[in-house]
Design goal:
With 376 residues, the protein is mainly alpha-helical. It has one domain: Glycosyltransferase. The protein is 51% helix and 8% strand. The protein has 13 helices and 8 strands. It has a 3-stranded antiparallel sheet. Strands 4-5-6 form a 3-stranded antiparallel sheet, with no helix packed on it.
Amino acid sequence: MHLHSTSNITDIPSIWQDIQAKVDRMIALIGAKSPHMAGADGKYDDQRIDWWTSGFWPGLLWVMHEVTGEDRYKESAWEWDERLERQMLQPNSFDHDVGFHFLPTAVVKHRLTGDEDAKRRALFAANFLAGRFNLNGQFIRAWNGNMHGWSIIDTSMNLSLLYWASLESGDPRFAQIATAHANTVLKHFIREDGSVRHIVCFDPLTGEYDETLGGQGAAPDSGWSRGAAWALYGMANTYRYTGDAAYLRASQRVAHYFLANLPEDHVPHWDFRASETLEGEPRDSSAGAIAASGLLELAGLLAEKEGRVYREAAERMLGSLYAIYGTWDDNEHEAILKHGTGHKPAGQNVDVSLIYGDYFFVEAVAKLNGWKQRVF
């Protein structure tokens, strides 16, 4: 039975059954595609393999395998890290988001199966990410081309690949680079009020701060909700790896800003400062799903009494996403969540389904269902 109004998630086993039934249908519908966005027709596109979202569909399948123990999910996910490696050895567009590619694929595959090729691929990707570090500016550069001094908040979520690589290889360089970048996030990306900048530009030679750009947010001084979700989750992860309370407090500060600006159904608008009233502004279900999973992570890092407020907020968000934004009754729809927003300033992918929204929704519910492992 589906919820018909916003409420906390309560019947996790029943919701997980809905997710499992949906993902089983998605496997048949999606096939070998690399999904990113599904529009009004409910059909996922087939993006190039080096597009930043290509790890989320196989990552979702690995989570399903780990929670259920059923091999069909593992079999559907198995070849993805090999496909990614083949592309890395050709002309490609891989960038700061290789963590999004290889954490949900190669790292998880190695953890679950001991596959040595998966470990090698993930370490190769970690070396690639470490190689993007700007020493003078203490940041990992974003994208490619001539944007040598650009860095973005999304990279916060990719730092886990570097921390994993340090633990796996015994080489501290990876963790040192991750922590240096995280310190730059604290200094330049997360504002005092908990809102977050998307793009910060530095002089690539001197490392000095240059300017802030709006990016996928409404303006340089706005509050892009998905960026806040990346920061909330990414700083919680950084605390988990380092034990430095500065990252924990930063995650909490962003969480408080995020939660204070949610509308009545607990699912964020695409930018908390897109307009004065936000009336008519689209939602971003993907930002809600990412933030919900990050809030559960944050709650788990705190004593039960202190963490309860974050866990309950995550449950409210997930309950609303399940009840209002899901496609449970549409067997032909290839996505789980509707009403995501990709890049509104560019007019791209507004009010659509997004594979990373699907991934983080499943990941968050898996956490509520007792899943103890982590991808990021």
